[in-house]
Amino acid sequence: MAETTTLPVRGTGGQPGSRKLARLMKNKWLYLMALPGMLYFIIFKYFPMWGLLISFQEYQPSLGMLGSKWVGFDHFHRFFFDASFGMLFRNTLLLALYNLVFFFPLPILLALLLNEIRREMFKRFIQTIVYVPHFVSWVVVVGISYIFFTTEGGIVNDILAAVGLPKIDFLMSEEWFRTMIIAQVVWKETGWGTIIFLAALAGVDQQLYEAARIDGAGRLRQLWHITLPAIRSVIVILLILRLGSFLDTGFEQIFLMLNSMNREVGEVFDTYVYNVGIQQGQFSYSTAVGLFKSVIGLVLVVGANKLAKKFGESGLF
Amino acid sequence: MIGRSIGSRIFDGFNYTFLGLMAFVTIVPFIYIVSVSFAEPEEVLRRGFILFPTSFSLEGYKYIFSTGTILQSLWITVGITIAGTLINLLFTALLAYPLSRQDFSGRNLFMMLVVFTMLFNGGILPTFLVVKALGLLNTYWALLIPNAISAFNLIVVVSFFRQLPEGLEEAAKIDGCNDFGLLFRIVLPLSAPVLATFALFYAVGHWNTFFNAILYINDADMWPIQVWLRQIVILSQGGIGDSTQFDHNYIAPPSQIIKMAVIVISTVPILLVYPFLQKHFAKGVLLGSVKG
User: Fold this and answer.
1) What is the mean pLDDT of chain A?
2) CA-nearest residue of chain B to A62?
3) Which of 34-93 (B) contact A at CB < 8 A?
4) Assembly ipTM
């Protein structure tokens, strides 16, 4: 605080200014500690936000941000009337929707089934195995898919051929792209997704089950009246989180699965920004596309948080 | 106790079978890949699907390591993983500690700045331009610094630091310890298990780093292993073996074996740390669900 010229009096300063300075001096080591981290956030998170301004420019690297021409909403206008706008929206929304319908319930289901296992050893054994794929990179997952599903010696097509069915080009066709993406997510993340539900279930008082049994409740009724209510709030929170990041379809996975044969159904906002921006060098235009997505994302997160509070949950922020 | 009904028994039967199947489907691709990578080329060509090979050979591995490319890339990845994890931990701990202190006057503002980055970001391109402007393109720094702190992990660590007993810090302060002393002598030793958890998470992230590498690193000599993995397995490109290293009758092993050997090599380190990961991760995830 440069405006304070009075002598710093330690502890109890008379004027508000010097008290402020005294507090700063008392915290000086803490400020020093926070410095690298805050610099990191400012440089790598806030500078890029400022850099979003180039989406309103005809940015040229040689001229820099200060020298480049301002063009207002030209890039947004161009994007909204471009054929790829509809395609990106459709692809992103469909993938997000399929993810919600076909992936989201699975960890809940798996956690419920695991919870019914009474033999601890067996339960832990299954858990140990199904968590593994989460730690494997997307390159490996997509690589394994290529090895299994290729038409040239892939095991799946070999089996199809063996039973007299025609070969299917899972990797280079539009029809199978989304199925493959969702299947990979299911294989990689279902097991891992159970952790949070199992943790919630571990907190359930076992006496509740005991009491229900004495009252004559079967296992299905126990599941319905005790187990499900125990994880309901976790489900709601996760559902809302999912809605908040609805447009975030995993970039690496889709990037790795994309090829010239499935681009029409596979290209999403993130991959499009990469291709047009980094590969083709249309910096301003692709930044505009990215900004459009980020703003929608922000609206969704804030909306989802409001929704959470409406449901009586504590919300995320 | 009431005796278990028939319906209950049938359900259990189905449940055990289903979960067993699920575990099988999860693990089978790994077994297949490891098996084929160690099988003799002749057997692979003859039998196709091999879960339990009857032969053993290191042909695929020999071929991969006949040039230095993969080995060098592995060393690069090891270096990035170690350096990157240390940077992550240091940056995270240094920032988390002040944010956890009730008497730190910048706390709320700083916290707000951090949380906002989780809701909104500049996106790929502006971040790329910042990295470029800093002259980090085509350097390993581009893989280390732009992801120095994960905001989510930071917040979890902050909430963990907050619940440490304050008495210890007070005592140390009276003994003349300054804030750095408090962090490094009192708080960090008390947080060893949590730090171990995050070290593992960060390390796995660095080992699996792919997108930042293709974004920021053009020079193939600097590629980490995941980028080579993509070249070889997904794009089926990239000369990594050198047949001239072997005698002139040498025939390179089928590409399948080579691909699987590369997958094994790039995944083994993850599977080696997995037992440690498994011991700690549930704790880490649960900490994450405790709101800060």
Assistant:
1) 88
2) B133
3) 48-49, 91-92
4) 0.89
